[in-house]
Amino acid sequence: xxxxxxxxxxxxxxxxxxxxxxxxxxxxxxxxxxxxxxxxxxxxxxxxxxxxxxxxxxxxxxxxxxxxxxxxxxxxxxxxxxxxxxxxxxxxxxxxx
Length: 97
Description:
mainly alpha; two-stranded parallel ribbon; 6 helices; flat
């Protein structure tokens, strides 16, 4: 199980407690949980390595991932800034207008 922990998961007490309870249920069911934050996403190779290690530990024998330059470019700082800049756009409407 791969979970992204956004800042709201830390700052909202209700969300934080729900996350802890869900995490405990998953562990009790024998699930491996890999938790990812924005800071970790800044290092995509490390995230992929962590996920692959978890899959291998669970018995997955699939091929190693191929991290092409194009794939890594998706996670570059400029690509992240671009996604953030466009995150609040409404199709057909200019921002501020």
